[in-house]
């Protein structure tokens, strides 16, 4: 089966437990993390994760599980197919 | 190692979340030629059934793609064969009935607009086309989502001034019939010179004669993204400005092309074209006028506006052309007044005038767009305004258009609200001197020398 990859982006105020919360959702859904990078700029937390979603039928359902975390912690977590980033930044 | 750098991901996310990057529209073009029938009831039923079955999944598939890729698709639309071509000997009342059918189909499918209640009369007017013109004011006032475009001129045929004359009257009547809603019917009617057959944008979309059975066309947006990119380079020379716009247009277009292809594939419909137009909205900073101001104008409309617009329009095309395998539609910058906060401010502050807007249409993609004028404007003045735009398009071998709203009861300087994507506009005055004699002469303005290219 063709590999389908997505980018999980997390943006918001730095606080304890962000990575734990996000990776918990991913683990619960059997989503493998392929790469992580993060920066903290003036208390502003940015993380991008590349994940394998070949087995995931609906990204929408995954996104829904991030929404409560967004609300609790004041974050912006989004999951988008990697193709978009490739299209925009690679010829 | 990630293939895409963190900074690149951040750029994409910033474009979408903070700079209003979106896909303005995915537009499904559907041929209705096989729906023609001498029995009107049969034709009416076939049209409804064909549209609602071909576009059955358009909205849901587009919405899924939107969520998966994280880029909003603002509108889902349908374009159809110019209706005049299948009207045959239907009556005016039947033509109005058909408009209602189209409206009903659009509502059933949850699409925002259906374009193609149209006629191509740039050389002559056939029976079905005259029926459509007669039906137009009422058809646009009793429907919500039906859009109409009328071609009155091309470079190859010249200008059909008889049709131009009729359009002035039709626009006046359509405004009058919707006077309680500021003449909103006119916002759904565009008069063209050199129309294109695969335009995904409204109100001018129709499924042209050279098109296939069904197709999916995409229009991107993104003035906000270009504006923000330019703000990061406040002191560079104009060559670099062009380069920044080009690179940004490339990225926007690639995003649009990807989404368009995915949606087309999932609908099992051929991908048609990508329209590279920069289409503004009333969202903060999502303005073409503000890009021109960022390039170096105190207010849009002042001296230098045309030069800045020409540079921007050209750079958008150059960036977009490489990003898409099939470029089409109008592909340039739109300068609608009511949908662009910067244009509105330019008019309110007296920097931007109707004459300057006309001049701007010489170097950008369309024409006088979403302009509110005083309610007492004469039909002949409207016709003459159309004739001027048509002449610009005809001579310069480009598309030009007029979408103008003579707002009943409103005077120069008043503000009118159209709502939604259509925005709001300050009412502009028109030249008080008469063009009556020119319009009354009728006939055709012959095709120019530019047409003799064989």
TrEMBL record, chain A:
Highest taxon of source: Bacteria
Family matches, as InterPro entries: ACT-like_dom_sf (IPR045865), ACT_dom (IPR002912), UPF0237/GcvR_regulator (IPR050990), UPF0237_ACT (IPR022986)
Transmembrane region(s): none
Domain ACT: 7-80
Family classification: Belongs to the UPF0237 family.
Matching NCBIfam families: PRK00194.1
Protein name: UPF0237 protein BKP35_01430
